Amino acid sequence: MKKTLTFLALVLLSLQPVAVKGQYTFTRYTPASGLLTYQTNTVVQDNEGFIWIGSTNGLQRFDGKEYKSFQMTNSQLPSNPVWQLLIDKKNNLWVLLASGKVGIFDTKKFLFNEVKTHFHKGVSPNTYIKRLITDQSGNLFYLMGGSEVTTYNPQANEFSYLHNFIPFKVKWGIVDFVHQPHTSKYWVSLSNGGLAVYNLQTKRWNDPEHNPDHEILIDQLNQKDIYDRLFFDSKKRFWYTRPGISPTIGCYDIAHQQPILTHYSFNNVLKGNYDIFGFNEQSNGTIWVKGQLVLAAFQEDIHQFQLIPNGFTSEKSIAYERVRTIYEDRENNLWVTTNNNGVFRFNPSQEFFTNVQHLNPKSGLRGTGRVHAFIPTRAQTLLVGTWGDGLFEYDKNLKPLPLSIKGLPRNGNFNAWAMCASADSNTIWIGTDGGIYALNQQTKSCKWLHWNELTNEPVKHITEDQNGELWIGTETKGIFRISPHNNFRISSFDAIPQFSINKLLPDSKGNIWVATPENGAYEFNPTTGKILRRLTLENKLIPERGVAGFLQCNDSLMVILTATRVVCHNMMLNRSRTIGLPGRISGFNANIEKDANGYLWITSTNGLYKLNLPKTIFSSFNRTDGLDNENFTQSASYHLPDGRLLFGTVNQFVAFNPTHIHSNTTPPEVKITDFKVLNKSLPVDSLLQLKEIELEHNQNSILIRFSTLLYNSAYIIKYKLKEIDEDWRIAENEAIYNYLPPGRYHFILKTVDEEGNESNQTTQLTIKIYPPFYQRWWFYITMLVLAASIIFWLDNERMKRKDALVKMRNTIADSLYQDVSTVLNNINVLSEIARIKTDTDSLKSKEFIEQIHDKSGSMIEAMDDMLWSINPANDSMQKVVERLQEFIEGLNLENDTNISLEVEEKVKVLQPDMKVRHELLILFKECIQYLVYTEAQIHKIRLKVMLSVLDFSIDFFSSNLNRQSIKYVFESKEFIQKLDSLKAHLDVGHQDKNSVVHIKIAL
Question: Domain 876-1003 belongs to what topology?
Fold first, then answer.
C-alpha cells in the first residue's frame, strides 16, 4: 500500500507544470528568404562580419538582409556543392568543395583561386570523408578520412604530403587528426584501432605499439577501438566518438586524469539510428554535439547531453535530419546548418524569456486556462492562479512544486482570478467565483468565504487598504467592501455604478484607483468613500472610454493604460498627456509594470513593449525574441522582489529579468554592402577607397545597400543624402535615388539604438555625378575659345575681303584710269588731226570725228559697266544676267535683231566676286558685239552650269566671210588675255551655215 501511494505521488508530481529548461528561440533561413536551397552544409563569419553559407547549390554571403550568391553557373566556383568553409589566421576564406577541389575565395573580388592537391596514396578526393583542419599556429591540413593528411605550403600554393612537417607513417590509415591546443602535440586516430600522438618539440611518436612518453590517453583508452571526431576543449578535456550504428561519446579530463564520459549514448531517447559529426565549444565553455538526428548541449552539472527538441512545434522551433555545422559568431549567436530545413540561428545567452506552461490537474494534459494572478509566499515560492485549471506553486527557479494546500477543491479545477497578500504577512486572499479563499500560509490551509450578495459572481480583483479593509472588483456587479475586523461583513460600494471592473490599485496616499472598460477611471478615498477624481473621454483626461490599468511612477505621475494608448496623468495638476502615436501598441493593452531602471513594461493582446518614458521610445518583443505566446491576459502581472517581472498569457506565463535585457551602449557603425548603378553592382571595397565616387550623367540612378552586420541586435539605421534630403530617413537595408541631377552629394549613415542613442561614428560616401560633356567647364571654355577663334577668323576674312575689294576697286579704278587716259589721248590726237584736216581734207576729218565718236562711246560704256560692277547693289549673278538682258535688248532695237537669252536658274544663284562678275559681263558683251559686227545672225544665247563649269554659248548663222572675221576676232591677243584671266576655254564650231561659240569658265 505504501509503494502504491508513493507511485501515485510521483505520478501526480510528474503532472505538475514544468519550466522547460534550455528553451531556445530559433530564427530560420530558407529559400523563401533568399537561401539557395534547404540543403546546407557549412557556415562561417569573416572578419568584416558577413556570414558565408555553403550548400549543395553553391556559396552565399549574407549580411542579415540580403544574400549574394556564387555558383558554378556564373563561373565563380568550379562546382556547386560546398562541403566546408574555414577562415584561417590571415582571414582567408577557404572553400572545400564536394568534388574535393579546394581553394581560397577572394571576398573582395569574388573569385575562387584553386589550390593544387597532391596525395601520397591513390585516393579520390570526391569522397564523403574529407575535412580542412587548422592548428593554433595557422597551419592548414587536408584530411582524407581513413587515408592520409596533407599540409598546405603557401609558397607552392599546394596541399601535399611532401610538405608534411609531421612524419606520418605510410602504413597508417588516418581516421581523424587534431592539434592539442597550447602544446606541441598532434593526435591521430588510426583505422586499425587506437591513438597516436606526435610531439613536435621532441620529434617523437607515441602510439599503441610504443608509448615511451606514457601519454595518458594512450594508456587509459582501449587501443583496439577506433576513435573519431577528436576534439580538445578549453578545460583540457579530450572528446571523441566510437563509430557504429549507434556511436557512443567519450570524454577524458586530462588535467584531472579521469574520465567524464565513457560510452555515452542517445539510444534511450532517439528511436532510430543516429550519428555524431563532431563537437563544438562556445565561448562560454558550453560543449555542443552535432550529427544525424543529434543537436545537444552538454550539462556540466549532471554530465549529460540535453537534446534540442527536434520538430516544428512553433515558428521558432527547429527540425533537422543532419546537423553538419554549429558555428558561433561574434555576437555569440549559434548558426546551425541542416540538410533538409535550411539554416537556423539562436543565441543561448540571449534567451531572456522563460515561458512557463502548466498541466491541467484533472486531465494531465497541457493546461489551456488563462493565467490571471501571481503572489509570492513567505516560503519563497510563487503561487499562480488560472482560469479553470486552478492554483499552481513554483519554487524560485520556477520549477513546479506539488500543491499541498488544504481546503481547496480536490480536483483543482477552479478559477483563481485574483490574489492579494494581507498586511499581516500570513494571509493571502484568493478571489474565485462567488467569494474568496483566505490562505493561511503558516498552516497551509484555506478558509472559504462567500456571501449571498455575490452568488457565483467572479471576484476578478482584490486589494487591501490601509485600514485592513478588503475591496473586491467583480465581473458585472461593481465594487464591494469586506471588513475582516467586522466578521467579514460585505457591503456594496454604490458610489461607483455596478459594472465590470478591470483593475483596483491603491496609490501612495492610500486612495484607490478603479479602471473600467467603458466608464473611464475613478479615484476614491476608501475611508470616506468619496470620489476624488474622474477621468473620462468627455473631460478629455483620457483619449478612450476604456481603461485597462494603472502604474504610479511617483507622487505626482500616474501612468494610465487605456484600451490602446498610454497616458501620463499629472495628479497634482489634473492634466494628462498621451504618449506615442496611435497604433504604436498592437492589440489592446493588458498590463503595466516598472522595472528597477525606471523602464515601463506594457503587455497587450499582441505583444510585449518596453517604454523609455522620458524619451517616449517604445521597443517591442514578440515570438522572434522568445515569447511563446504574446496574447497577454488583462491585469495579470507581478513585480517580484528579485526584480523579475511576471506576465500571464492565455495558457502560460512569461518570466524575465529586465536588467538582463539591455541594448549595446555603443550603436555599431553601418557597413555598405552593395553599391549599384543602373542596377549593376560595383566593387564596394574599391569604391570605399576612393575620395569620391565619380559617375557620368547617365549613371544617375543608384541603389546603396548597407547593414550593421549584427544578427541578433536591433538598431535603427538612418541615412541622408545631404544635398537632397532635408531630414533623416529610416531604412531597413537600402537607399534608392533615381535620376540624380549632376552635382556632388554626401551620403551619410548612422545607427540609433532603442534608447535613442546615436552612433558616434557615421559612414559617409561622396558621390560626384558629372554633367553631360556640353555642360562641363572645359566644354564652355572650349566653346568660348572656338567662338572667339571663329569671330577672329570671320573678322580676319572680312578684313581680307574688304582689303581685296578695295584692292580690286583700286585695280578697276587704275584700269579705268588707264583706259580713259588712253581713249582721251586717242581722242585728243584724233581731234587735233581732224582740226588740221578740216580745211584741207574734210572727208578725212569727218572719218576722224567718227572715230572720236566711237571711242568716246566705248569709253562711256566701259565706264558705265565698271561703275555698275563696283556698285554693292549689283553683287550677284542675278544682276549680271539682268544687265546682259538689257544689253541684248538694246542690240535687238539697234540692229533690228531677235536675239534671245536663255539662263538656267542655277546660274542666277552663283556668287563670283566683283572682279569676276565684271570680267564675265565684259566678255559676254564683247563676244556678242564681235558676232554682231561680223554680221553673224545670232538667234539664241545660253547660260547654264554643268559640273561646276559655267557654259556660255551663242548659236548663230554665218557665211564664210563671217567665219574668217570671227576667227580673227576670237584669236586676237586681247581676247585671249581675257579668256586666260577667267581661266576660260573657247570653242567655235561650224556645221553648214550654223555655228556655235562655247566659252566654258571653271567656277
Answer: Heat Shock Protein 90 (3.30.565)
